[in-house]
């Protein structure tokens, strides 16, 4: 062994030089292999091993890059990893610092799809955003008749909106013939719209699957056909994480077939509960409004008491008293006449002079009593009538005017109650106990 020298390198220096040689000598590369030992610690970083039949390479995918990886990263998957070869100096571990991960075999396909997506977006193919009628009058469903998607759609529609009118247009949803069949069916539906104007929504849907299963919905011609469709189109392809060109070109995208059905129709139970609540609210509001208006009417009726009504009421009372007085006088006179007649008959029946004289005296006495009673009754009724007249005069507004007061009215006949209701220079009418005056407001005094 050569003897030790004073210029020996430290372990850290050796690892640092090795790291620089690896990073500068190899640089950034694409490495393909099988995933093994995928670890996801709480830090958010991903650690895994790439291996083939004869070797393995430890890899690290840091958190800021891991969130952009769409691949599920499961053990056994074959992937392509882009990164730079480096060395972890504290432990001397040789590793690949990953920057991007793609499933092997899909990289070029996804790259081509991304280029197509950018081109169609630049052309405005993804600019559709027409609102869909809710609920649709006639829903046209483009899907496979044997798939789970149509069963999910029909089950949700039956539960939420049984009145929905649905027509299934059976088309293949995967394979080479799927895209042409979808394009032809969509064109036929647009041509038939003139014959059936109630056809107002097209739902293009299928269940989840692999990228190859969903590839028909990434067809460029299908995306353009959806963009040019006169009928609004909803697309619900695959699961929520699957986004195809058909989803982007459609007016509305739904994450799943069941979600599409929920978006297309309202829930009848929610509408029933809402209608019940609105009905109760309307009844309460109507009852409260009627009660308020009734109270307001009663209040206004109580306040609306015109002096003419008081005068008319006293006039009716006076008329009733006068009529009662006349009836009483006529009744009393009739009774007296009957008595007089009876006496006259008795007198005529008594021939002796004495009886005649006695009868005449009695008749004179009764006549005097009658006249006195009549005079007393007339005096009493006149006194009562005078009292009523004085009461009527006391409540009459004319009596108030007779005591020196006046009523001021503007040109419209409205009564002036406050000085603030007038303006200097305004002409008013002053109603006095006798006659009226035209006066002019000079100024208002506080």
Automatic annotation (TrEMBL):
Major site of localization recorded for this protein: cytoplasm
Molecular function terms from GO: exodeoxyribonuclease VII activity; nucleic acid binding
Annotated catalysed reactions: Exonucleolytic cleavage in either 5'- to 3'- or 3'- to 5'-direction to yield nucleoside 5'-phosphates
Leader sequence segment: none
Coiled-coil region(s): 283-376
Entry's EC annotation: 3.1.11.6
Compartments where located: Cytoplasm
Repeat in keyword set: no
Any one of the GO CC terms: cytoplasm
Family: Belongs to the XseA family.
Subunit structure: Heterooligomer composed of large and small subunits.
Protein name: Exodeoxyribonuclease 7 large subunit
Organism, as annotated: Billgrantia kenyensis
Gene: xseA
